[in-house]
Structure formats: C-alpha cells, structure tokens
C-alpha cells in the first residue's frame, strides 16, 4: 500500500499496539515483545517516509471491553445475563485486572475516536507517535 500512498502524496498508517508494549505483564512475553517491536517499527517507518505526505502512528489500547472479554466473564461467573459493567466490576474485584485511573475499561468507541483523528487529513503533522488509549493504565510517560 505504501507505493500507492507515495504516488498519491497522502497516506495514513495506523498500527494497533498494546499497553503491554511499554508495561509488560507476566502472561505473554512474546506478545509484549512483539508489540514493543511494533512501536519501534512505527517510529522507524515514520522517519523513512519523511516528506512524502504519509504519517505513521501507533495506538496502544489498554484493557478494552470487547465481546471476548464479556464472554469470558459470563463463563467465569456462570451467568449469561451479566452486563459489561457487572463483568468489569467482578473481574476487578477478583483481581483479574486492576481498573485504570479512568475507573472503567475502554470501549471500541474510545479507540475509534483516536484512530479517526489520526486517519484525518488534519493530522498531517502527527507522525511517529504512540497514542495510549488506556484510561491511565500505563503508569509511565510516552
């Protein structure tokens, strides 16, 4: 896709990484390492595409309440009627994860807002950046 973007003198590459790229957990060293590499790849690719109208950025979500996590919670607690909020509260109470400082898990819409901004023609001066959409989950600076 990059040659077509270069020909058009416009493009937006948005990589989806993870909070574990900069704050790994003990559950997936391979996943955390791959996401850290993706963050570095983003910065490198942004530099390689300097001056051609293409931006390259990364979005790093924290824990996002997706259907799979909702299903996991419903199975874990044996109750198919649990809402997203109830699953979140129970998983946090059982220390499956800590709620981030935002006090809730992220939603797909939270990610979509940042990705939409980065995909916009208005984001032409933003490149090589990592946008954390994690509710404050990662406790360090970018």
The CATH architecture classification of the largest domain is 3-Layer(aba) Sandwich
Morphology: elongated
Number of strands: 3
- Written as H for each helix and E for each strand, in order along the chain, the element string is HEHEHHHE
* Structural class by SSE content: alpha/beta
Low-confidence stretches: none
- Cα distance spanning the termini: 28 Å
Radius of gyration: 17 Å
Which key features would you list for this structure?
142 residues; alpha/beta; Rossmann fold; 5 helices; 3 strands; 13% strand; elongated
How would you describe the overall organization of this protein?
The protein is of the alpha/beta class and 142 residues long. The chain has two domains: 1-63 and 105-142, NAD(P)-binding Rossmann-like Domain (Rossmann fold, 3-Layer(aba) Sandwich); 65-99, no CATH class. The chain is built from five helices and three strands. It has a three-stranded parallel β-sheet, sandwiched between helices. The longest helix has 20 residues, at 29-48. The mean pLDDT is 93.
């Amino acid at each position: 896709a990059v040659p077509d973007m270069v020909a058009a003198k416009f493009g937006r590459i948005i990589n989806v990484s993870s909070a574990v790229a900069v704050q790994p957990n003990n559950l997936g060293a391979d996943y955390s390492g791959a996401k850290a590499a993706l963050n570095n790849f983003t910065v490198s690719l942004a530099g390689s595409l300097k001056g051609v109208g293409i931006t390259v950025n990364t979005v790093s979500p924290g824990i996002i309440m997706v259907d799979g996590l909702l299903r996991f919670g419903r199975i874990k607690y044996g109750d198919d009627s649990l809402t997203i909020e109830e699953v979140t509260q129970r998983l946090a109470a059982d220390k499956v994860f800590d709620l981030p400082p935002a006090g809730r898990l992220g939603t797909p819409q939270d990610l979509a807002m940042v990705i939409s901004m980065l995909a916009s023609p208005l984001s032409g001066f933003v490149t090589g950046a990592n946008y954390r959409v994690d509710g404050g989950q990662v406790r360090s600076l970018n």
